[in-house]
Design goal:
alpha/beta; TIM Barrel; five-stranded parallel sheet; three-stranded parallel sheet; 44% helix; globular
């Protein structure tokens, strides 16, 4: 109720325990606190918070326009809502080394379990677009060193992302990954690898956990968890999947309302009222304070699914007696 009973320190230990080579632990991207609750309920081990999703939800492209305060605030809202560890995208760190140290501390205060910082120039662009420009090796390593040194909680995970594969090829990218590990990165996010063999090469070359980004419409094939596990991947993120699914559904229902004048044909596809109440745990609030939740769903508006989710007996047919 209200927030997760697990402390940020506990969640950070949970994240570290998940990052075993070959585990391919799946982290769906939550775009709201409510979607994070759904990720947890379905049994996933962790939550990813995408910088692209935060920007897109603000109606902005993913080109470095979001601020640290916006990212930390959204990250805090999502982390508060779930017992799962949350890994957040910190883009290029929001400034120079001193700014990056502050970024880490703000994300610690927000209750996140870890973050990744990338080696693009600022303003950055989506990792699966062409025309990216990388900073030099010295700048990239100083970013990671500042992040590692800026931590107050040594359990907060500092991950380095590199986009160098697209710009200079895999061998150069692997050499940079090794340098980032030497600078303090405890895990590596190699963006936009071409095939499964490249994941295998990266995992074999590094002594730290490796993340695979399975984003739709990108440069990497959508490999299964089993395939990525066999390559040695420790974590798999699905950063924009839930947002794309939700916005696709929203677009379809809006079109239906325009075309037919009603949303009725789309209602079977929607989350029911009872299911929504279950996700936000109305019952706990009711037990805590009956003045908060002291009503029942009217029978006229309750579906069969609602009754099942609310643990109610089947509806009794109306009596034929006058």
């Amino acid at each position: 109720m209200l927030s997760s009973p697990r402390t940020p320190a506990q969640k950070r230990q949970d994240l570290r325990a998940l990052l075993a080579p070959g585990a391919a632990a799946p982290f769906p991207g939550a775009f709201t606190p409510l979607s994070a609750k759904l990720v947890e309920e379905k049994g996933f081990p962790g939550v990813y918070v995408s910088g692209a999703v935060i920007a897109n939800e603000l109606g902005l492209p993913d080109i470095g326009l979001t601020t640290l305060s916006e990212v930390a605030s959204r990250g805090a809202q999502i982390a508060r809502a779930t017992d799962l560890p949350c890994l957040i995208d910190a883009d290029t760190g929001f400034g120079e080394p001193m700014n990056i140290a502050r970024t880490i501390q703000e994300l610690e205060d927000a209750g996140l379990a870890g973050c990744h910082i990338e080696d693009q120039v600022n303003p950055k662009r989506c990792g699966h677009l062409d025309g990216k420009t990388m900073v030099d090796l010295d700048t990239a390593t100083r970013r990671i060193r500042a992040a590692a040194d800026g931590r107050r909680d040594p359990s907060f995970l500092v991950m380095a992302r590199t986009d160098l594969r697209a710009a200079e090829g895999l061998p150069a990218a692997i050499e940079r990954m090794k340098a980032l590990v030497d600078a303090g990165a405890e895990a590596i996010f190699p963006e936009a690898l071409a095939d499964l063999g490249e994941f295998e090469q990266v995992c074999a070359a590094l002594d730290v956990p490796v993340l695979a980004n399975m984003t739709e419409f990108g440069k990497s094939q959508l490999f299964t968890r089993e395939q990525l596990a066999s390559a040695g991947v420790a974590m798999v993120i699905y950063p924009v999947t839930l947002l794309r699914a939700a916005m696709g559904a929203a677009e379809r229902v809006l079109e239906t309302i325009l075309e037919t004048g009603s949303q009725e044909s789309r209602v079977p596809e929607m989350l029911t009222r009872a299911r929504l109440y279950e996700l936000v745990d109305y019952g706990s609030y009711s037990r805590f304070d009956t003045s908060v939740f002291d009503f029942e769903i009217p029978e006229a508006h309750r579906t069969d699914t609602d009754r099942t989710a609310a643990h109610l007996p089947p509806e009794t047919p109306p009596s034929t007696k006058e």
